[in-house]
């Protein structure tokens, strides 16, 4: 009876010896033989080779995850040969428009931007342009997002170098703005996408620099309190000055694109461009209010409430909703609200149901912020019997918000009246 389990145990042991060796044992054997497999090196080498072999445009059309490495490799090429890399970047911009046009490296500084754009317009007239931005094909489904990602990565990667050399991005912006004004729609779409992304990326860089500036300023103040000059004080002062100079340069590039593109493209004949323009402007006002929160910029959002296309009106409403959600911005919106409040109320009865629902949501925000008068709210109650259930539901929420506000106001005034009466009773002389 005792022999059977011993035999089975020995059998199991013998089977284990015959099987595949354990991973740890295999690794130790490889180390002893000096045969460790360099998998990571192979992957890195493959990735590096792919980055140098493929053009930038192929990365934009391909996998978005590979774009950051492609941009880093391009920046290295720019540092080695700026003219060649600039030609490569501008060629990528033209390819993004669907046009094949090769700039001459030797004449890069002499050639006119207008001449290049005219040549590109000629290609479009001859039907030699592939529209990838408005295409519904599966191949180009993520093209616009990848294009924005590429230019965002480019700005972030260049923030410690070419971004502020007053050469590369000045030239790129000239071509981008020129393309945004060209007759072919695809050129205007690509120019607008790139320009909007550049401004948003400039804002990201400027905000990061502002944080660095505050830190350096605190360090400088602390160093001055020590009451002695030295190399550290001089270094901090120079660093602060350089950082502020970069912030000013970034803001100058933002203003340049705003004045040359935003103020023009909001009237574009193609509604998608108007929509992109308003959406980007709203993001800029929220993200960098110190520069963009002014009546001139806000007026564009108000004017687009009158756009003939419903999707543009809705985009403008959503941009305003994002503004009214920021507490620090609301006090600066009072004049704007007074100017465009009537139009906002009218949009609650818009012919497009989705626009009307969005407008009612905006009015509810104004009511909560006490920026909507009683005379504006009462007429909206007629929409409680609207034929659209979406509008009835939205206006019901607004009415509920209004009644709660009235009840709270009456309770506040009632309690205040009781307090006043109590004060008067205490003050009465006894008979």
TrEMBL record:
Which segments show compositional bias classed as Basic and acidic residues? 22-35
Q: Listed GO cellular component terms?
A: chromatin; cohesin complex; nucleus
* Region (Disordered), start-end ranges: 1-49, 412-431
One example of a Gene Ontology biological process annotation: sister chromatid cohesion
Which residue intervals define the domain SCD in the entry?
262-347
InterPro entries in the cross-refs: ARM-like, ARM-type_fold, Cohesin_Scc3/SA, SCD, STAG
Q: Which PROSITE patterns match?
A: SCD
Question: In its UniProt entry, what is this protein called?
Answer: SCD domain-containing protein
Tell me which species this is from.
Answer: Aristolochia fimbriata
């Amino acid at each position: 009876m005792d022999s059977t389990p011993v035999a089975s145990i020995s059998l199991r042991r013998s089977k284990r010896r015959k099987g595949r060796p354990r991973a740890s044992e295999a690794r130790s054997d490889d180390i002893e033989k000096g045969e460790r497999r360099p998998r990571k090196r192979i992957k890195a080498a493959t990735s590096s080779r792919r980055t140098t072999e493929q053009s930038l445009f192929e990365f934009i059309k391909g996998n978005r995850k590979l774009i950051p490495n492609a941009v880093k490799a391009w920046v290295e090429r720019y540092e080695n040969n700026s003219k060649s890399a600039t030609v490569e970047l501008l060629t990528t911009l033209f390819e993004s428009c669907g046009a094949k046009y090769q700039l001459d490296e030797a004449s890069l500084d002499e050639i006119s931007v207008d001449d290049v754009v005219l040549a590109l317009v000629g290609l479009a007239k001859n039907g030699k342009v592939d529209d990838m931005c408005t295409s519904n094909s599966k191949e180009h489904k993520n093209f616009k997002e990848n294009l924005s990602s590429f230019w965002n990565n480019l700005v972030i990667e260049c923030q410690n170098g070419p971004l502020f050399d007053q050469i590369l991005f000045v030239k790129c912006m000239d071509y981008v703005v020129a393309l945004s004004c060209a007759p072919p729609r695809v050129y205007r779409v690509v120019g607008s996408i790139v320009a909007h992304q550049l401004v948003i990326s400039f804002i990201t860089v400027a905000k990061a620099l502002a944080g660095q500036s505050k830190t350096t300023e605190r360090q400088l103040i602390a160093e001055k309190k020590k009451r002695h000059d030295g190399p550290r004080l001089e270094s901090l002062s120079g660093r602060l000055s350089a950082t502020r100079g970069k912030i000013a340069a970034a803001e100058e590039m933002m203003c340049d694109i705003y004045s040359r593109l935003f103020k023009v493209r909001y009237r574009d004949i193609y509604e998608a461009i108007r929509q992109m323009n308003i959406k980007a402007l709203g993001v800029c006002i929220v993200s960098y209010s110190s520069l963009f929160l002014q009546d001139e910029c806000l007026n564009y959002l108000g004017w687009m409430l009158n756009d003939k296309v419903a999707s543009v009106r809705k985009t403008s409403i959503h941009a305003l909703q994002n503004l009214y959600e920021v507490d620090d911005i609301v006090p600066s919106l009072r004049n704007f609200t007074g100017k465009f409040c009537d139009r906002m109320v009218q949009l609650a009865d818009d012919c497009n149901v989705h626009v009307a629902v969005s407008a009612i949501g905006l009015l509810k925000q104004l009511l909560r912020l006490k920026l909507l008068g009683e005379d504006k709210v009462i007429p909206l109650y007629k929409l409680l019997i609207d034929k659209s259930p979406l509008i009835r539901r939205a206006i019901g929420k607004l009415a509920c918000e209004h009644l709660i506000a009235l009840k709270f106001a009456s309770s506040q005034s009632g309690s205040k009246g009781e307090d006043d009466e109590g004060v008067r009773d205490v003050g009465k002389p006894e008979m």
